[in-house]
């Protein structure tokens, strides 16, 4: 069962019973309790609120902070990371700030969409002389608000088909434009990142554009939360050997899944959200 299918099953359980029993869900789905907890973390990052039943059967803690995404899921529309209006979490803000140090002035850079990328774009727009290419309307809007009076970034927005369900441009025109570019670096968000399966996304519509962006970039950098590390979703857009940099975050020491990613990538950062030690880096 794919990660997205598990997460939809967890949401269905929460809607039916107003809470979920982690052990019972794990048994029914044939996965470990750790996998269910990781799925709950992904859902929380997307804005879903899921209440977890305690071992005694009473009400437990609520996982997540918003109800907007859960309401959308009840109507049959799951929110992808690139959905308009999706706010970034503190973890995503920290990851974006760390990823910004990978870029340098006057580079040619490609960007996907998603809340972490939007926060990254706010940092990049202040670097002088950048050329930035994206198929995300919101990423382009963030980039265009540079405060620089000179050497403002050049923003190239690809053409393509616009589906109102997200802020992305899709289709063969988008992929063709991206493949024609020669980029020094490209940044991506993801819904899953695994050391052996690569970077994945739930959006089939956007996957072709992401693959084209990977092909056009001399180097790639994938931004992933702790919950996304070690998980996979519907479609791969970057194989493990196509990922040069990984930027993630953890409270204290990185998880085993994060450690595997940090070792494999050419240069990586794991931000310590607890502030107990310096960020873990690999050169």
Which tags fit this structure?
single chain, 283 residues, alpha/beta, Arc Repressor Mutant, subunit A, Rossmann fold, 2 domains, eight-stranded mixed sheet, three-stranded antiparallel sheet, 10 helices
Describe this structure in words.
By secondary structure, the chain is of the alpha/beta class. Helix content is 35%, strand content 19%. It has 2 domains: 3-74, Orthogonal Bundle (Arc Repressor Mutant, subunit A); 90-282, 3-Layer(aba) Sandwich (Rossmann fold). The chain has helices at residues 3-17, 22-29, 33-45, 68-74, 90-99, 115-124, 137-143, 172-179, 204-216, 256-264; strands at 50-51, 62-63, 108-111, 131-134, 154-157, 161-162, 169-170, 185-188, 192-194, 198-201, 220-223, 235-238, 245-250, 267-272, 280-282. Strands 5-4-3-8-11-13-14-15 form an 8-stranded mixed beta sheet, sandwiched between helices. Helix 6 runs parallel beside helix 7. It starts with a helix and ends with a strand. 47% of the residues are buried. The model is unreliable at 55-86 (pLDDT under 50).
Task: Summarize the structure in short.
The protein is of the alpha/beta class and 283 residues long. Helices cover 35% and strands 19% of the residues. The chain has an eight-stranded mixed β-sheet with strand order 5-4-3-8-11-13-14-15, with helices on both faces.
């Amino acid at each position: 069962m794919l990660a997205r299918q598990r997460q939809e099953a967890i949401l269905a359980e929460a809607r039916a019973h107003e809470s979920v029993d982690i052990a019972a869900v794990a048994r029914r789905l044939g996965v470990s309790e750790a996998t269910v907890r990781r799925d709950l973390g992904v859902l929380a990052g997307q804005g879903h609120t899921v209440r977890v039943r305690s071992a005694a059967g009473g009400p437990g803690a609520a996982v997540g902070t918003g109800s907007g995404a859960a309401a959308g899921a009840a109507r049959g529309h799951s929110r992808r990371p690139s959905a308009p209006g999706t706010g970034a979490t503190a973890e995503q803000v920290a990851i974006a700030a760390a990823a910004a140090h990978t870029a340098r002035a006057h580079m040619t850079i490609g960007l996907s969409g998603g809340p972490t990328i939007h926060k990254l774009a706010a940092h990049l727009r202040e670097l002088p002389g950048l050329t930035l290419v994206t198929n995300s309307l919101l990423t382009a809007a963030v980039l265009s608000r540079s405060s620089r009076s000179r050497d403002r970034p050049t923003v190239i927005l690809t053409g393509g088909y616009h589906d109102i369900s997200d802020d992305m441009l899709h289709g063969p025109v988008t992929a063709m434009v991206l493949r024609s570019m020669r980029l020094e670096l490209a940044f991506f968000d993801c819904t899953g990142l695994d050391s052996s399966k690569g970077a994945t996304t739930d959006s089939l519509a956007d996957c072709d554009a992401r693959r084209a962006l990977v092909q056009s970039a001399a180097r790639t950098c994938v931004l992933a939360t702790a919950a996304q590390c070690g998980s996979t979703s519907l479609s791969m857009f970057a194989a493990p050997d196509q990922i040069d940099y990984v930027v993630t975050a953890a409270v204290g020491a990185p998880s085993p899944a994060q450690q595997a990613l940090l070792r494999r990538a050419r240069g990586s950062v794991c931000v310590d959200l607890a502030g107990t030690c310096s960020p873990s880096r690999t050169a």
